[in-house]
Write a structure and sequence with these properties.
Length: 160
């Protein structure tokens, strides 16, 4: 009985085609890259100044935490570990980004002026948004955290 089932499954396997091709898409319109024809299409990526503001605020946050909350040896060890993790995280991320940006496969082009960037569009995962909105989304969280850490640190120092 088992031998019979094995023979049937082997024969069925031999009858199936060796490769199955995915269905081909037909009647698909080509995507236009003409900015004049599609005004909502993004023409620039995120400006480096937006990334620099966010990274500067992140460094501000880490330094504010280390400056205001340094105290006994136990706290200093924890802060040293946190600052070390932050340095490794940002160093690794920025180092790899810098390495990828210097790759000759990417076209080296000068970013537009910051004023032109603000007036343009940026592509994100879900579509296209205004560059001003993208800047707000990138910069808000690091700046709020840095200002909040500074305010809490000042209150902590004044109270203690």
């Amino acid at each position: 009985m088992a031998q019979h089932a094995r023979i049937q499954s082997t024969e069925a396997y031999r009858r199936t085609p060796a490769r199955r091709q995915p269905p081909r898409l037909r009647n698909v319109a080509p995507v236009s890259t003409d900015i004049a024809a599609a005004r909502d299409a993004p023409s620039v990526g995120v400006h480096p100044v937006a990334i620099e503001i966010a990274l500067g605020a992140s460094v501000w946050f880490v330094l504010a935490m280390a400056w205001f909350f340094a105290g006994p040896v136990d706290a200093n060890i924890a802060l040293t570990v946190v600052v070390g993790f932050a340095v490794v995280f940002f160093g690794l991320t920025l180092g790899l980004a810098r390495w990828a940006a210097n790759d000759p496969r990417w076209s080296p082009r000068r970013p537009p002026d910051f004023g032109d960037f603000i007036k343009d569009n940026v592509a994100i995962e879900t579509g296209v948004i205004g560059a001003r909105e993208a800047l707000v989304q990138i910069v808000t969280l690091p700046l709020v955290l840095a200002v909040g850490a500074t305010a809490i640190g000042i209150v902590f120092r004044l109270a203690g």
